[in-house]
Every structure is written in C-alpha cells, then in structure tokens.
Design brief:
Chain B: The glycine cleavage system catalyzes the degradation of glycine. The H protein shuttles the methylamine group of glycine from the P protein to the T protein. The complex is a heterodimer of chains A (364) and B (128). Chain A has 364 residues and is an alpha+beta fold. Chain A has 8 helices and 19 strands. Chain A folds into 3 domains: 139 residues, Gyrase A, domain 2 (2-Layer Sandwich), CATH 3.30.1360; 70 residues, Alpha-Beta Plaits, CATH 3.30.70; 76 residues, Aminomethyltransferase beta-barrel domains (Elongation Factor Tu (Ef-tu), domain 3). In chain A, a hairpin with a 7-residue loop joins strand 11 and strand 12. In chain A, helix 2 packs across helix 7. The radius of gyration of chain A is 21 Å and the shape is globular. The two termini of chain A are 38 Å apart. Chain B is of the alpha+beta class and 128 residues long. The chains are: A alpha+beta (364), B alpha+beta (128).
C-alpha cells in the first residue's frame, strides 16, 4: 500500500485508516461529524498528498492544454488556477483536474490519485510538439487547510500577504528555505488553502500548522469528512458523479467548458446538445428520516418507474438529514419535484433542489 | 472498549439483558465505535413478532449501514423512541440510553440462542 509522508503521523494520532485506491489514508480521527463541523466553523487540516502532480512544460504547452482540455487557458495569468474536466474522444470523463499556470509555458496539473497513471498515459498519448510531461507526484506533498479560520492560521506562518490571493489564485513563499505553493481553493466549499511542498518537508509543514493553529482549535480531518463536506456543496467526485460512462453535459460542467473551441471530446457533446439531453445530474434532500447511499435506485413516486441512480448519498451534518446527488432522466429533473429513493425495502421521498445544500465561508 | 458482566453478547455485536421473560437489546461499545457517528436508527413496530436471528432494524452511520440482529425470537414490547431524535445516544451510551428494543421471550428459547459471556465476547473482539 502506498503511503503519504504523513502516514506515520496519522497512525500515531489515532486515525482510522482505510485503503483509498491503493493508499493507506485516514478516514477519520475523532469522528466524521465533529471533523465536518469544525471545518465549517473553524478550521481543519487535510492530508491530500496522495493527489497527483503532473507538469506540462515547453513552447507548445498552452496549445496542447487548449486541445486536450475543454476549459480555456490562454487568458490565465501566472498565479491563476482553473478547474477543467478532461474528456475522452466520446465525450465521457478521463478525470477532472486543476490547472495552475506557473509561468507562460509551464503548467501544473493536479489530478485525482486514483486516476493519476491513467491521466499520465492519456496526456502522453495526446500531446505533440515542443512539450514535456513530467510526473512529480511521488516527490510532492500536499496539505489542505480549510475553514473560515484557515487564513488566520496560515498567515502566522507565511511572509506573503494572503489577503492578496483571491479564490482560484496562488503564490509562492519561502519559509526556512522550503518552497511552498499556496493556492486559495479547496474541496470543502469553505475558504481555505491547498499547499504544495516537497515530500520531505510535508511533515514539517503539517506539524508547524498544527502548532500555529492551536489557538483557533485546528485539528486534522480525514477522508470521511472530506467526502461529506464536498457533498454538502455538491462538488462532483470522479467515479461517482462523473466517470467514463456519462457525457460531460447536464452535470454542471458547462461553465468549465468552451464549446466554441476545438478540444478532445467536443463533437459528441455538440451532437448530444443538439439531440437534447437524456439525463441530468440532480441534487436532492430527503423529506423524512433516513440515509440515501451510492447506487440506490431513483424512482418516480407515482408510477414507480426507474428513473435513475444515486451517485453520492450521505447524511449532511449541517442539515442533519439525508442528501445526495443522482443521474436521472432529464424529463424528471425539475427543481422542487419530489422523487423516490429506494433504500432497502422502502421508497423514501426526496425533493430536488438547485444550488448548494449549505452556505459556506468561501469568498466568491 | 467497555463490556458489562451482567450482559450476554452475540457474534454480530449486540448485547442483551435478560430479566425473566423480558429481554433488552442494543449494540455493544465495540460496535458503535466501529460504525462511527450514528445518524439514524430504524426500529421495528411494537407488537411485531420476530424469529430468532432475524434482522429487526438498521443502524445508519455517516459512512455505512449495519443490520440489527436479534438472537432470540419473541414479541417486540417497546422500542427506544429517544433514538428518533438522538440516534447518537447509541454512540455515547450504548449500554444505557442507547438501548434499542425490549422483547417478550420464552426463557426456554435462551438455551438455543448463541450467546457469549462478557469474557468470551472480549476474546471474540480481540480476534476480530
């Protein structure tokens, strides 16, 4: 099993560990709900060193990105980050990723741990011209500090002015000779930062932040809270909402794609758009008690016709009830509509909603 | 992990307290800790007749769902209604306020039920 530089720390601090696509990762320390609420109200530290870091560099790096990914990158400044899906020729997902512009001709691509090798192979196969692809995942650690108090804690460590870093922007800092790339973003919906650092200095950074955050009540949070936090703000997760079976349409990806430009996977999207969407990714809140789970069937309440499947379902600690996302037939995807979720031998009523499930501290 | 000598235990990590023809059932401290934060407990209707080793309900934690087995048959006398609003009582007090069902049984059936003493259960958990 693969280990992050913080693996021993997690074991020493009572974390419950799980196999997360080949990585020995903490699912929880104290408890998912406590860690979740602390992230919403204070701040938490997440070990996300398992994420993949790929670099594209060279005179043709930008041109390759523009063709490889549906989002636009030409107008990005150095120090800016942009989210994008990455699609196969058939318009389904290879992965979703964040692209960091390090300088004119160098980009960092942060990809899902479970997809890293597949992504590397796909990119290598599709790039051309003067461009070099490098995988620095093993040499790189990554720590996320998330929550309304994240900035107050991090500012005790860094020399740069964090208030100057907007959401989806980053900057570098040098602390005790160690280089940090600090990006204001995250997977929790809260204000916060994701910090890249050399693998060998990751434990130093983690312990330093834990120490500096004592006053604000900073504690570590595991993958369990990371999942409920991202679900409450309806962020997709590869392998659940998005995968190599669903088209990148009808799932909130439109604002991350420029259908006017040429990119891999574009034509099936244009064709499907013209023909009309068959399926849509929706968000629902259970009306009564219960917990919807991944793969639960979605049915029409009157006819009991099967109309879709839950992609992520869980208990929302903030709403104190069941929430989820599901791919359902497009004709049923009307906000406010009550649908049925099959949980074991019962059909639970759920209401379709628009927007995020909860409000957060994130600065727009 | 806490065990109590006055209780009997099952391999599915339930405890029962036997008091004549009445049995109280819940899940053990080991089980609640393994499940993590419990957010919903689905219990049977009062008056339901159940068979031994039948599933009598479900426990939902944030991450997983787990069935509640009853090692002995009988009639459901009452269920813990406090768990509707405070399912986390199962985490905080699994042997007390977190109890789940009370059952009327025939004490003769206890001989057939697969039950462990607290010492046997401790050994069982250590091997788990």
């Amino acid at each position: 099993m693969k280990k992050t530089p913080l693996n021993q720390w997690h074991h020493n601090h009572g974390a419950r560990m799980v196999d997360f696509s080949g990585w020995d990762m903490p699912i929880q320390y104290e408890g998912i709900i406590a860690e979740h609420m602390r992230t919403r109200q204070g701040a938490s530290l997440f070990d996300v060193s398992h994420m993949g870091e790929l670099y594209l560099e060279g005179k043709d790096a930008l041109a390759n990105l523009e063709r490889l990914l549906p989002n636009r990158f030409g107008d990005m400044k150095t120090g800016q980050v942009r989210y994008s899906p990455m699609l196969y020729e058939n318009g389904t997902f290879v992965d979703d990723l964040s692209v960091y512009r390090l300088c004119d001709d160098k980009f960092l691509l942060c990809v899902n741990a479970s997809n890293k090798d597949k992504d590397h192979a796909w990119i290598a196969q599709n790039i051309k011209g003067e461009v070099v692809l490098t995988d620095k995942s093993d040499a790189t650690g990554q720590i996320a500090i998330q929550g309304p108090k994240a900035e107050a804690i991090l500012k005790k460590l860094v020399k740069i002015d964090l208030t100057k870093i907007g959401y989806w922007f980053f900057d570098w800092d040098l602390i005790d000779g160690k280089e940090l790339l600090i990006a204001r973003m995250g997977y929790t919906g809260e204000d916060g930062f994701e910090i890249f650092i050399d693998q060998e200095h990751t434990l130093w950074l983690w312990e330093k932040l834990m120490e500096l955050g004592q006053e604000e009540g900073l504690q570590p949070a595991g993958l369990g809270a990371r999942d409920t936090l991202r679900l409450e703000v309806a962020f997709p997760l590869y392998g659940q909402e998005i995968d190599d079976k669903h088209l990148a349409l009808g799932c909130g990806m439109s604002r991350f794609m420029d259908l006017e430009k040429e990119f891999i996977g574009r034509s099936p999207l244009l064709a499907a758009q013209k023909a009309g969407l068959k399926e849509q990714l929706v968000k629902f809140v259970l009306v009564g008690k219960g917990v919807p789970r991944n793969h639960c069937k979605v049915v029409d309440l009157n006819s009991r016709e099967l109309i879709g499947e839950v992609t992520s379902g869980s208990h929302s600690p903030v709403l104190s009830g069941g929430i989820g996302m599901a791919w359902i037939k497009a004709e049923h995807a009307q906000p406010g509509k009550i649908i049925g979720i099959e949980v074991r031998d019962r059909v639970l009523e759920a209401k379709l909603i628009q927007g995020s499930f909860v409000k957060t501290s994130k600065k727009a | 992990m806490e065990v109590r000598p006055e209780l009997k235990y099952t391999e599915e990590h339930e405890w029962i307290l036997i008091s004549g023809t009445e049995v109280t059932l819940g899940i053990t401290d080991f089980a609640q800790n393994k499940l993590g934060d419990i957010v919903f407990v689905e219990l049977p209707e009062e008056g339901t007749i159940i068979d031994a080793d039948e599933t009598v309900g479900n426990i939902e934690s944030v991450k997983a769902v787990s069935e509640i087995f009853c090692p002995i048959g009988g009639e459901i006398l009452s269920v813990n209604k406090d768990l509707e609003e405070e399912p986390d009582l199962v985490n905080s007090a699994p042997y007390d306020e977190g109890w789940m069902i009370k059952l009327k049984i025939d004490p003769a059936d206890l001989e057939l039920a697969k039950l462990m003493t607290h010492k046997e259960y401790q050994t069982f958990c250590a091997e788990d």
